[in-house]
Specification:
164 residues; alpha+beta; Aminopeptidase; 7-stranded mixed beta sheet; 32% helix; binds coenzyme A
Length: 164
């Protein structure tokens, strides 16, 4: 009998090949401009260079053995127990299967274990991000700030928080 891979597996160690994996996942979503893609990869570089001291933690997720999603989070300097969810992305071929929900829940569990008590997530007010906003709201995130024209005229920044 051929062994089947578990549906979802998580990994936390960051490897040099993750620069390319993160680039592929983030680019594939079509949600991020080249500058944002470069920042996503820089966070991997920082993690590789400095480890925990970078302040960036990663959760990589595979779907039936296929690496296709990740999150990046970290403690917010100067706060007692607030964390930023810097990034969460699922390759489009693997979206709407519940993977994002599992990855988010698992990331929150990691934050809780690190004594984090609040998670902040930011997104844009653009129509393209409606599913992202719905995703956060569905998972218990509340909008606590709305910064008008933050990213560009007509493109506001929305800040969500969830207590853990
Ligand atoms: C936001 C994102 C991470 C969600 O990941 P995902 O894997 O698609 O998330 P889920 O599958 O858990 O949920 C997505 C939708 O699929 C639905 N769904 C979940 N399991 C399902 C299933 N088995 N069958 C059908 N639909 C399902 C959910 O109800 C949800 O619907 P909703 O949009 O009406 O809320 C992903 O869409 C993404 O990478 N987006 C682009 C990047 C982005 O915006 N990142 C966040 C800002 S950094």
């Amino acid at each position: 009998m051929v062994p089947t891979a578990p549906a979802i597996e998580f990994r936390y160690e960051v490897e040099p090949a993750d620069r390319q994996l993160v680039r592929q996942i983030v680019e594939s979503t079509g949600f991020f401009n080249p500058g944002e893609v470069a920042i996503a990869v820089e966070l991997v570089e920082e993690r590789l260079a400095k480890g925990d001291a970078s302040g960036y933690h990663f959760v990589f997720a595979s779907w039936h053995g296929e690496p296709c999603a990740y999150s990046c989070y970290g403690p917010i300097a100067g706060t007692l127990h607030s964390y930023d969810l810097y990034w969460i992305a699922v390759h489009p071929s693997f979206q709407s299967k519940g993977l994002g929900a599992k990855l988010l829940a698992h990331t929150e569990e990691c934050i809780r274990r690190q004594r984090g008590r609040q998670v902040y997530a930011e997104t844009s007010s653009r129509d393209q991000y409606a599913p992202t906003r719905r995703f956060y709201q569905r998972h218990g995130y509340q909008r606590v700030a709305h910064l008008k024209d933050f990213y560009a005229p007509g493109d506001d920044k929305l800040i969500y928080v969830k207590g853990l």
